[in-house]
Amino acid sequence: MSDSKLAGQFFDAAIGLLERVRDEESGSIAAAGAAIADTVAAGGRLFAFGAGHSSLAAQDVVYRAGGLALMNLLAVPGTVGVDVMPATLGSALERVDGLASAVLDSSPARAGDLLVIISLSGRNALPVEMAQNARALGLTVVGVTSVAYTTGTKSRHVSGGFLRDHCDIVLDSKIAIGDAELSAEGVEAPFAPASTVVTSALMQAMMATAAEELVARGIEPPLLRSGNVDGGHEWNGRVMREYGDRIFYRH
Q: CA 197, CA 83: separation in Å to the nearest integer?
């Protein structure tokens, strides 16, 4: 069987986007990593939020081997993934005014904490309202989004603004409107989205920078080890005990 031409084209497109964010977003990645380190050093807590497929990149930095133990998922019921039935309900909930404020008000988030909000388009009510309200509460807000949507689409929030308009730091994923890298003869719709690959890479680059910043300040980054390597459970147990008051994904 010959190699797939389209598979190669997708890898090329994804690599090209990764190279762009590496080179063009290095300043924003550094700023976000420093802000996370500042929050950890000051005793603050870390949260990540994303709706729909944007939630995948948020989940990718929560409770995982090689990740910061302090990163918590700020979940909005019905928007985390395709487990809700019907799946279209998740998309509808992203456009509901007031949902973000209700979730924030009942969450542990408080002034001095940091929230990473991931939204590819940044145009729906949920991420915009989440950013507005989090900043009003005194949180530092990092937005991971595609800036292209701000010039090629209209906001669905009452303010007319996008996620990028309400963040302290913005990381641009460079994803084109529509999130599909390939087209082919005989295929009626564009396909092969790369937003998950690129956004997850931005998140991990940001977390790596945070670890680097913490070490530079003489603070051991509270990282988790794999439970599938010898000593991993014991290591993680120590980290969880030491930082238990800032970890909310366990009882």
A: 21
